[in-house]
Amino acid sequence: MKKIYINILVCFSVIAFFTSCEEELDLQNPTALSVENLLKTDNGFQLLSNGVLDAYQKVPANEFLLIELRSDNSRANSENGNFPAIAAYNVDPNNGDVATFYSNNMHTIKHANTIIVNRFLAPENQQYTVGEAYFMRALCHFNLVRAYQNVPYIDKVLDVTKDDALDYPQLPEAEVYEKIINDFRTSVAYLDGRELNRYRPSQGAALCMAAKAYLSQPNPNYQEAELLLASVVENHDAFGFDLIYTERTDGLTDPEHFYNLVLDYGHVLGNSFSGSLGDDGVPDGSWSNEPGLERNKEVIFSMAYDLVSSDNYVTSDSGLDDQIETDSESHSFAMTLQGPSNGVNIATTDLLDVMTPELQPVRFYASLNPNEYTAYLSDPTIDVFNTRFPTDGEIGDNDWVVLRYADVLLLYAEAILAGGESTTDARAIAAFNQVRARAGLEDVVNLTKQVLLDERRVEFLYENQRLYDLIRFGEADKVLTEFSRENSLFYTNEKKYLPFPQREIDNLPNFYDQNDGY
């Protein structure tokens, strides 16, 4: 079985590689001249690739506000600027976060295209940087199409002195996904044989992200997604991926076993627990970020951040030395321990019905503040905040995990389910139950679409997946309409997507169209 999947992987890589070599190198763009000089150095492509990752570090900064805050997981209090409006599905096209998220992704795409247009100059030992560029270009467009739906697909460095942008109209969603998948496929070929670095795109990450794109497109291709995910799941040891999970040993009580699993679940995001198991069977202590835990076997691809106070700093824990510098930033201040000062990462009452110590004995204690939850049970006006990113300060050191192996396992089960209502396929059940076991929950023998969606909600809480999961499963309108009705919000079916930034429309009048509902 495993040899079959490896052969599929090889064919996938070879086809993508030859597809990527159809265009000739074009250095006519005047903006490429300074790049040409840079590429005369021994490590020019490495520096350019590091610049792509540096640019992407700004992308997750406000993603939470636009994605998770518009799900049924999180809400904003009524006293914090435009955040309550975002949470109420009342986003304005002139909203700064809407425009910044778009432009930060486009900025990264520009850096990736600089490498891609010059790819034939890349020396043999830096071919991987071309694969990283294709991966990052696909990832950014994946962010954009899921958030804004019909977007341009930018495949070259645009010349601001010309009307290059007029060659890039908004494309139908399906066409955007086709290009995303082709870019991920191409990156697989260029990344073949590259040693795994969890802070850089890898071949395994590209395979999984291509599969996620196949599942996310308007007409999901479950067969292709299943083949790609199977190639990773069936060979996860070779790829270097696995769940963080402690097997239960003889003599352990349920609370003791769950306590070990709570530690495991926290370690996935690089957090360590200071405390112990209380006499009542409840973890007693607090979480903090531990850089030594962040490069673990469950993380497939993440963006590195480091807690310092200078204007420019090195992400020392990333192993990238001085190659990536940032402007004292974190992935999202709103999601950290001090995020409650913005009042935006508050758990909804709907979430607190399913995220309880009884229903989620492992995930709960690594996700929400238990003291606030206890107070909430007596007084529903008490806010319960997310504790999954325990950075203390705006300059955060929690890495942002883009993809982890638990996601791959559940996506694999989703691909096998193939849009159906249920399955007893042994492969899907086995993959699903691995994630359940780490959460301290019982196995299932029949996997339903609803059970899978519910599992994803609590497994990836505050990882900006819930809204996209609802859309991909075809449940967004049903779930969010009911959630909106119960909370006096303004959701309509068009509000699944953000408004296209008014700034982009103004820059090219009569060229881009605003999304319906705005």
TrEMBL record:
GO terms for cellular component: cell outer membrane. Residues 47-215 form the SusD-like N-terminal domain. Residues 370-518 form the RagB/SusD domain. PROSITE patterns: PROKAR_LIPOPROTEIN. Keywords: Cell outer membrane, Membrane, Signal. The keyword Signal applies. It is found in: Cell outer membrane. Pfam families: SusD-like_3, SusD_RagB. Belongs to the SusD family. This is Membrane protein.
